[in-house]
């Protein structure tokens, strides 16, 4: 970490022009400093469009000529998605750009004037000073299949969120108008249940139908697993229903609208999953990752969408920090603070890893053995949640090794730590 910090500081030399840009939706503000933190010229405000970017480039050229500077570094906050257009423009013109953590800007803006005042010129200056001090990170911009994968997974997350909202509204409808429906069917998403809701949704409509009519409707919807017995239960439940019986015409119309939305979202999710599978086939090593028992297409795609190309990392611990799974503690003097995970980085990646580990612990023999080992070992046994975090890091290590070495998943290598422990006990 110290070496990386020194390397960042050494990139700012006597001939370096440091530009700090405060990002906004429509207009950005920029200020220029030299390697000692001395401001060069007046700052400028420029719009988030081609003419604004051209104005920024002309301003940078003037300062470079006036002060005889060569190398340019542009620092900015990753504010929402508004910085992406400027980043692309700078990358196309081969101007080095770096990112400054918004939390660092907020905490260091009072160092110069001891004032909590916040405005665009002050933030731009603070960003430039942080770049001079080497307190920045290199942007990791996804390209090709990884960029497509991230967009696909972001879109999938929105579709799932919309579908869950529709599901909740359908359940709300059933609780109001037909609360006995879920006692007849285990779930309303089955073929027979959906066919019932789409063809005769209210209890009054069902009570008017004969057993043969209901069974025929189910047969036409390709649901052959239910028959007369289930139809009889449905009719009896409809006749004894305590659901609301007012404004049924509008209620039925509302339910049909919700069901159409559910069908449409389900269709889009299925199509998107096929696209994601195609993208994964284009990425080397994913076939080996999918061979791990307990890992599915959506899990692997989600992890790679968050991390990007694993070959871009030197060590798996970099991905661990990206997920916020690195450890932190707060100690002072004789007080020894509690060690917890930092939770700094990409929360979606951390959530994906947690959701991936749960089925691995129950279905994958190697991860299940590791979980039992971590929680029951004599020296430093871990709590269950601590073991889950450790297994998340182990999964990252496995995926990183598969990607780097392009080798199949080897269960024996995953269990090496247990084997070493057993060998030590025998010795």
Task: Tell me what you see in this structure.
This protein starts with a helix and ends with a helix. The longest helix has 34 residues, at 144-177. The chain is globular. The protein has 20 helices and seven strands. The strands form two sheets. The chain has a five-stranded mixed sheet. A two-stranded antiparallel ribbon has the order 6-7. Strand 4 (71-76), helix 3 (84-92) and strand 5 (96-99) form a beta-alpha-beta unit. The chain has three domains: 9-132, 2-Layer Sandwich (Nucleotidyltransferase, domain 5); 147-278, Orthogonal Bundle (Helix Hairpins); 286-330 and 338-426, no CATH class. The model has no long low-confidence stretch (mean pLDDT 90). It is α/β, with parallel strands linked by helices and 427 residues long. Helix content is 59%, strand content 7%.
Concise overview:
The chain is 59% helix and 7% strand. By secondary structure, it is an alpha/beta fold.
Topology:
Layout: H1 2-10, E1 16-22, E2 27-33, E3 44-47, H2 50-67, E4 71-76, H3 84-92, E5 96-99, H4 102-108, H5 120-132, H6 144-177, H7 181-184, H8 191-199, H9 203-207, H10 211-220, H11 228-239, H12 248-281, H13 286-290, H14 297-307, H15 316-322, E6 327-328, E7 340-341, H16 347-363, H17 365-376, H18 384-405, H19 411-414, H20 416-426
Parallel strand pairs: 1-4, 4-5
Antiparallel strand pairs: 1-2, 2-3, 6-7
Helix pairs in contact: 6-12, 6-14, 10-11, 12-14, 14-16, 15-18, 16-17, 16-18, 17-18
